[in-house]
Target: Cell division topological specificity factor
Amino acid sequence: MSLLDVFCHRQKKERENSAAIARERLQILVTHHRSDMKAPDYLPEMKKDILAVIGKYVTVEQENVSIHFESADDISVLEVEVTLPEEDQTKVRMA
Amino acid sequence: MSLLDVFCHRQKKERENSAAIARERLQILVTHHRSDMKAPDYLPEMKKDILAVIGKYVTVEQENVSIHFESADDISVLEVEVTLPEEDQTKVRMA
Model:
């Protein structure tokens, strides 16, 4: 199962569970595989840099940001999800 | 299945397939769910900003970066994977 398959599957499940699925969303998942479990875990620190990158492309409103952090054994996962406003808030236009 | 489960499962599969699994890795997955399929797809543009964020925390060597982009229907996925050098190249130290 490719990562795109995983996300398409998740989206399909969410679509079944929610009428509000049509809203535009950005989801950022950062996974840190550490070879040494004592290595520093910089994902919580990286969070604000990631939000700054998202903010460069779309208007981010604090109440529409969901942040989740999990750590187990030698793997840490940071998940940032931003639901975008109904109106088009894209800042960057492609050619 | 939580996202952490998905990644732990992937890591287990990779561990079975590779002897080099002990190397430290950072994986960034950006998923853009578009409500309007004609909306601009800024993920390819966002790629260089993400690499700049990673470079703030660890030393990134070009040959150790793998970038993959997929787009289907109303979902686009950008995957950036960085394998870190054997020696500790972490730039940011946590307290």
